[in-house]
């Protein structure tokens, strides 16, 4: 059975994208990390293994991954972009205190796209939903 990382690597390889050690490390990190890291966080996590790698290298590779549909960029307000390698349809709950982003699924919201089409004739190709509030850890701290 092939892993998601192997499938992503094959897609890049068949598209003529050369697989450098840094590119492989960035992609592997993203696919194994559930915290929706920023480019700076990715850089800091990998810099000890790749001392000559720059933050620009991380950004450039993230752009390649986005262009090939392997990663999505999450932008929320003025904060740094976050990156998510989970390309399944899912939504995000965002803590307004600590910034934690947590995935959740709610399949019935797909009906929103159908309603947009029925009511406006607009042909949606996706949607995005964020729920803002306070995560459990921050709420527990407040209670004490």
TrEMBL record:
<comment type="similarity">
    <text>Belongs to the Fur family.</text>
</comment>
<dbReference type="InterPro" id="IPR036390">
    <property type="entry name" value="WH_DNA-bd_sf"/>
</dbReference>
<dbReference type="InterPro" id="IPR036388">
    <property type="entry name" value="WH-like_DNA-bd_sf"/>
</dbReference>
<protein>
    <submittedName>
        <fullName>Fur family transcriptional regulator</fullName>
    </submittedName>
</protein>
<dbReference type="InterPro" id="IPR043135">
    <property type="entry name" value="Fur_C"/>
</dbReference>
<dbReference type="Pfam" id="PF01475">
    <property type="entry name" value="FUR"/>
</dbReference>
<keyword id="KW-0862">Zinc</keyword>
<keyword id="KW-0805">Transcription regulation</keyword>
<keyword id="KW-0804">Transcription</keyword>
<keyword id="KW-0678">Repressor</keyword>
<dbReference type="InterPro" id="IPR002481">
    <property type="entry name" value="FUR"/>
</dbReference>
<keyword id="KW-0238">DNA-binding</keyword>
